[in-house]
Amino acid sequence: MNETCESCKYFRRHYVKCGRGYSPLDQGHCVHPRLKDRTVDTPACARYRCGEKPRQEP
Question: What residues have CB less than 8 Å from 20, skipping those under 6 apart?
Answer without folding.
Answer: none
